[in-house]
Amino acid sequence: MKHVEANFDGLVGPTHNYAGLSLGNVASQHNAHATSNPREAAQQGLAKMASLRNLGLVQGVLAPQERPDLATLRRLGFTGSDARVLSQAAAQAPAVLAACYSASSMWTANAATVSPSADTFDGRVHFTPANLTNKFHRSLEPEVTGRILRAVFSDEHHFCHHRHLPEHDSFGDEGAANHTRLCADYGQAGVELFVYGRSAFDPSRPAPSRYPARQTLEASQAIARLHGLDSDSCVFIQQNPAVIDQGVFHNDVIAVGNGNVLFYHQQAFLDTQTARHEIREKFGDGELHFIEVPTAEVSLQDAVQTYLFNTQLVSLPSGQMALIAPTECRDNPAVAAYLARLTGLETPIRHVYFMDVKQSMRNGGGPACLRLRVALSDTELAAVNPACLLDEALQLRLGQWIDKHYRDRLSIDDLRDPALITESRAALDELTQILKLGTIYPFQR
Is 250 a catalytic residue? Predict the structure, then answer.
C-alpha cells in the first residue's frame, strides 16, 4: 500500500486585513492597520498550492471561515440589521469588530492536530480542531473548522473527528503549529513531537514573561490520549521561553520536521539534548537527521523576520527533500547563505524553492502556516472529498472565483461597509458548491 503526506492549504478569505490582533506575533503587530489586498493574498496562496502540486505532491484545499462573525457580535450586545450591527460595533468597539472580521483561518497549521492511522489505536486518521483560546479572534474558529474537516474527511471508516479541547487557557491548543511527526516512512508508525510553551498545572516549570505561551503541556497530553497514541510514540518537548519572548509564538516559527529530519534553530527548545535523546530512542533503528542551525550563522532575529523555519519541509517523488521557503529567506544575506550551504551538505534536504506569500507574511504567517499536513494511505486518499483536491481544473476555477469575488484593497475603515458582508457570503456560498462541502456556514443554515 502506498502512503503520501498531503498538504491541505487554507484559502485566504475575502476579509483578509491587517488589524494587528496577535500579541507576540511581531509581523502582525508591525503591520497593524496597513491596507491589505485580499485578492492578491488569495492568489498568492493558490499559486503556492499549484507549485507544490507541480512538484508531484498531493495538494488539497480547505475553505475559509465566514467573516464577519455576526453571531458573535450579536452575542456581545449589538442588535438590529446586519448594517446596524456593523455600525454599532465600529462606533463602540472597533477592536472587537476587527477581531470578528479576521481571516486568520487561512493559517491552517492552526486548524487542527492530525495523527495518521499508522500511529493510532484504531487504525484511523484522527483530527482534533485547535481551540485557539489565547486569541479572541481565533477562538471563534473551532466549531466551523470541525465542520469543514468533516466535510473533507467524511468517511468514518477511515477518519475520526474529535471536538476541540475545553475552552480554557489551561488547555490552550494551537494545533499542528506545535506538532510534528518523524518517521522512516509515512505508512510506518512514527514519533509524534508535541511542543508546548508552559504547563498550566505545574507553576514550577519555566514560562515566558513577555509574550504568552499559547500551547500547554496539558493540551498536548490530552490530544495524545484522544488520538489513542502509545506513550512510546510521543515526545513532549518544552519550547524555550526566551524565544517565545522574542516573537516565536509557535514552534513552527523555530523548527520544522518531516520524515527522518528535524530542522531547528539552536535556541528552539528548553532542553535540546534530552529531547534529541528521547526522539532517537523512540524512533528506533534507521537514519535520523537532526539539523541544528547555529545562532552564529542565523540569528534568532533573522530567523523570525524571514520565517526560515516556517518553511514547508516536503518529500519529493525523487526521495529527496525540499524546503518551500518565503522569498524573504532569499532576500536576507545570512539566511540565503545558510540555505545555499545546507543544500550541499550530506542531508536529505537538497532543494529550496522560494514562494511569494508576502500578503500572508505581513500578517505573521509563512508557507508552513498556510498548510495542514495529513499523512494518508492510497485507500484513505481515495476516501477524501475529491472536490477538495487540487488539479489544473480546480486551480483555474478557484483563480476565477477569487478574481470575481475579492477586493484588491481593504482598509480597517472598510470593515464597517455592509456590502462586504454580502460580497463575502456570495463568495463562500459559491465556494461550498465548488468544493462540494454542503452547508457548513451559519448563514447557510
Answer: yes
What angle (nearest 5°) sits at the alpha carbon of residue 222, between those of residues 26 and 186? 80
Cβ proximity of 114 and 74 under 8 Å = no
Determine whether 174 is an active site residue: yes
pLDDT tens for the chain, 445 residues: list them.
899 999 999 999 999 988 666 555 555 555 556 789 999 999 999 999 999 999 999 999 999 999 999 999 999 999 999 999 999 999 999 999 999 999 999 999 999 999 999 999 999 999 999 999 999 999 999 999 999 999 999 999 999 999 999 999 999 999 999 999 999 999 999 999 999 999 999 989 999 999 999 999 999 999 999 999 999 999 999 999 999 999 998 999 999 999 999 999 999 999 999 999 999 999 999 999 999 999 999 999 999 999 999 999 999 999 999 999 999 999 999 999 999 999 999 899 999 999 999 888 887 789 999 999 999 999 999 999 999 999 999 999 999 999 999 999 999 899 999 999 999 999 999 999 999 999 999 999 8
Judge if pTM exceeds 0.85. yes
Q: Residue 218: inside a domain, yes or no?
A: yes
User: In this structure, what is the dihedral angle of CA atoms 263, 267, 268, 274, given to the nearest 10 degrees?
Assistant: 90
Q: Is residue 338 part of a domain?
A: yes
CATH code of the domain covering residue 419: 3.75.10.20
Of 161, 179, 250, 265, the active-site residue reads 250
Task: Tell me which of 66, 174, 192, 380 is the catalytic residue.
Answer: 174
Distance CA 383, CA 394 (A): 18
Instruction: Determine which one of 100, 234, 329, 369 is catalytic.
Output: 369
